[in-house]
Amino acid sequence: MPDTSTLALPAPARILGPAGLIPFAGLALLAGALPDGRPVLLLLLQAYGATIAAFLGAVHWGFALRPAPGEERVAWARFGLGVVPALLAWVALLVPLRGGLVGLAAILAATAAVETLAARRGLVPAAYLRLRWVLSLGAGACLLLGAALA
């Protein structure tokens, strides 16, 4: 199994990953500052959160479609992790707004937690995992702020 602990993230991931927090922060802050626009802004926050949750699963489809030598044995788990966040995000769009926002924050954290377990087995690069936790905590905080405003 290759040592993924020393792999660095490419520059686009280091730049575009944190840039993905801009809509989370912008929508949550605007919802707090503009009470008249709050319902629409929170729906936009919920939709963006669901989109990102679905995107997280796509990462694992990529890993599964091109497994490193010896990682074929975890294909079902990888594909499962690729599907579950999107399905849960879809449910989070169908429940009342406050619950959906809290649910999306939980989905982001739970996905990062599962990825942490995978990283301990050498299946997820450490640099990716560090970025994922920073992004998940930032996005989750914005989603929870939105839930408090709902």
From TrEMBL:
Q: In which domain of life is the source organism classified?
A: Bacteria
The family database entries (Pfam families) matched by this protein are listed as: DUF3429 (PF11911)
The name under which this protein is listed is DUF3429 domain-containing protein
Source species of the chain: Muricoccus vinaceus
Keyword tags: Membrane, Transmembrane, Transmembrane helix
- Transmembrane ranges, per UniProt, are 15-34, 40-63, 131-149
InterPro entries the record matches: DUF3429
